[in-house]
UniProtKB/TrEMBL annotation:
<keyword id="KW-0808">Transferase</keyword>
<dbReference type="InterPro" id="IPR033749">
    <property type="entry name" value="Polyprenyl_synt_CS"/>
</dbReference>
<feature type="region of interest" description="Disordered">
    <location>
        <begin position="1"/>
        <end position="63"/>
    </location>
</feature>
<keyword id="KW-0460">Magnesium</keyword>
<feature type="compositionally biased region" description="Pro residues">
    <location>
        <begin position="50"/>
        <end position="60"/>
    </location>
</feature>
<dbReference type="InterPro" id="IPR000092">
    <property type="entry name" value="Polyprenyl_synt"/>
</dbReference>
<protein>
    <recommendedName>
        <fullName>Geranylgeranyl pyrophosphate synthase</fullName>
    </recommendedName>
</protein>
<dbReference type="InterPro" id="IPR008949">
    <property type="entry name" value="Isoprenoid_synthase_dom_sf"/>
</dbReference>
<dbReference type="Pfam" id="PF00348">
    <property type="entry name" value="polyprenyl_synt"/>
</dbReference>
<feature type="compositionally biased region" description="Polar residues">
    <location>
        <begin position="27"/>
        <end position="43"/>
    </location>
</feature>
<feature type="compositionally biased region" description="Low complexity">
    <location>
        <begin position="455"/>
        <end position="466"/>
    </location>
</feature>
<keyword id="KW-0479">Metal-binding</keyword>
<feature type="region of interest" description="Disordered">
    <location>
        <begin position="442"/>
        <end position="529"/>
    </location>
</feature>
<comment type="similarity">
    <text>Belongs to the FPP/GGPP synthase family.</text>
</comment>
């Protein structure tokens, strides 16, 4: 057992946790020191944005112009009634949905004015995909950060809803492009956008040409969603100091999202399963884009001080990285009925996830040539069967990679939430934000909503792997329980005992004496901080 230490704030921690905190202490926004910081709330409220030109709806637009020249919108261009923060608090996803409905109706009407076919097949498809939405997690994170930091006035409330809607459109761009790059046929349990186009035009030309057309249409649809998201941000009235920071954050967010996606596909083509690179891609793809930047946007709109913004940044990066690790696990182990897409997509695409990288490290350390052969043969095999995927699951379980990633998720979430202690109010909006952050890594959790039975484990840097004992247990969506014992002598690889050929619809319990992974996996320092 590790010794505990209680700091001046009364927070108990272990040496491993304090080491992780030291790493996270370096998680400072890249804009820090450049003057791109939010000002105090009083300064924000003092700067009143100048009114823009009267909006002129395009021909056929559903926006109704009142006799006084208005369009039924309130401050900042949101539907009437949503300027009251209390109304939005009652149902944030619904409020963001209303803003999206309003904006998308206008955008599709403008598309009709350009070309009816384009509006029906592309603009309409983007609008439908975005309206169907997911949990609206990013926009909820932005909103509850605004509220936890004291944002209540009409201008920041309207801006938070509009930028939250822009985040949902940006997510549409990311998902549609991701589906094209991965060749995915399903998303949220329905055919992907480019698959719909392929079906619509089947028989119009040779299958290869139709496929290329459908992929091109998917790229264009994602581009259109990106254009619309940028429009939402650009057309949001904000005071000058706040507007400058928001635009910088928005620019950084988009660049980081693309960088993370590029590292993802680059790793696929090179077959590089470096744990350092995998963690960096996870930080950029989800750590910043999905959690850290939405928190930063909310803090900026509320006029949060530097200390609060820094704490939120560190918390967001840790929990956002955990969010990507959960997604990696769900892709392999969660059933399709919960994820809305086929299981094992990352394996068939050969994605260099942290889960696979840890399995490589452990298999190499113990000299497990059979496990390495399974990984080499299966990763990137687009025709991998369910039986082949079961063999990969077996490797991920036997090497302890799954248990290590589960433990890392728990530690990152705890680390992130600890950053908010004493920074946000413990009640009201602060409580809602903490609860939301704690839930973003739930993923495709068991139907009863119970958390996985995991415990914190020792993290070392020798790359060796713990012994694992395999038996058969039902339901592979639940991770194996882990327990801590004394660290083994790593001078020789630990034994592995298989008591039965496991049924990989469920994982066997694994007992880890030490979750041994490189230091690159023990914190978030590889995110460029």
């Amino acid at each position: 057992m590790e010794d505990t230490f209680t700091d001046s704030a009364g927070i108990a921690s272990t040496p491993a946790a304090r080491a992780e905190d030291e790493v996270t202490n370096r998680c400072v926004l890249t804009t820090r020191g450049t003057g791109m910081r939010p000002t105090q709330a009083t300064e924000h409220q003092a700067a009143v944005p100048q009114p823009g030109p009267c909006p002129v709806p395009p021909s056929g637009s559903p926006v109704r112009v009142r006799p006084d020249g208005g369009t039924g919108e309130t401050v900042g261009g949101i539907p009437a009634g949503l300027e009251d923060a209390g109304v939005v608090d009652a149902d944030v996803p619904a409020a963001v949905g209303r803003v999206l409905d309003h904006a998308l109706a206008d955008r599709v009407a403008r598309a009709h004015a350009v070309d009816a076919l384009f509006a029906e097949e592309l603009a309409g498809a983007v609008a439908r995909f975005t309206r169907a939405g997911g949990k609206r997690t990013r926009s909820q994170l932005l909103w509850w950060t605004l509220r936890a930091c004291g944002g209540t006035d009409e201008v920041p409330v309207a801006a938070a809803l509009r930028i939250g809607a822009a985040l949902e459109l940006l997510q549409t761009c990311a998902l549609v492009h991701d589906d094209v790059m991965d060749g995915s046929a399903l998303r949220r349990g329905r055919p992907t956008l480019h698959t719909d186009l392929r079906t619509r035009y089947a028989g119009s030309a040779p299958p290869e040409r139709v496929g290329r057309f459908a992929e091109a249409g998917g790229v264009l649809a994602g581009d259109l969603a990106l254009v619309w998201s940028d429009d939402m941000v650009a057309e949001t009235p904000l005071p000058c100091p706040t507007g400058a920071v928001v635009r910088r954050l928005w620019s950084d967010l988009r660049t980081e999202m693309v960088a993370g996606q590029y590292l993802d596909v680059q790793g696929q083509i090179t077959g590089s399963y470096s744990l350092v690179r995998a963690l960096r891609a996870a930080c950029l793809k989800s750590g910043r884009y999905s959690v850290e930047r939405p928190l930063a946007l909310g803090a900026t709109l509320a006029g949060a001080d530097d200390a609060t913004a820094h704490a939120l940044s560190c918390a967001g990066l840790a929990i956002g990285t955990a969010f990507q690790l959960r997604d990696d696990l769900d892709d392999v182990f969660a059933p399709s009925r919960r994820t809305g897409k086929p299981s094992g997509g990352d394996i068939r695409e050969g994605k260099p996830t942290c889960l696979v990288a840890v399995a490589h490290v452990r298999a190499e350390a113990r000299g497990d040539r059979l496990a390495l052969a399974v990984l080499r043969r299966s990763l990137g095999d687009a025709r991998l069967t369910e039986a082949g995927l079961d063999r990969v699951r077996d490797v991920l379980i036997r090497t302890g990679a799954r248990a290590a990633v589960e433990s890392r998720i728990d530690r990152l979430v705890a680390q992130g939430l600890r950053r908010l202690d004493g920074v946000l109010p413990e009640h009201g909006a602060g409580h809602r934000l903490r609860r939301l952050l704690a839930s973003v890594t739930d993923g495709a959790a068991p139907d009863d909503g119970s958390p996985p039975p995991t415990t914190d484990t020792v993290v070392t840097d020798d790359g060796s792997s713990p012994p694992a004992t395999d038996t058969a247990v039902p339901d592979h969506s639940s991770p194996p329980p882990t327990t801590d014992t004394a660290a083994p002598d790593h001078s020789s690889p630990p034994p592995t005992t298989d008591t039965a050929a496991p049924d990989h619809s469920s994982p066997p319990p694994t007992t880890d004496t030490a979750v041994s992974v490189p230091l690159a996996f023990s914190g978030t320092k590889e995110c460029g901080r």
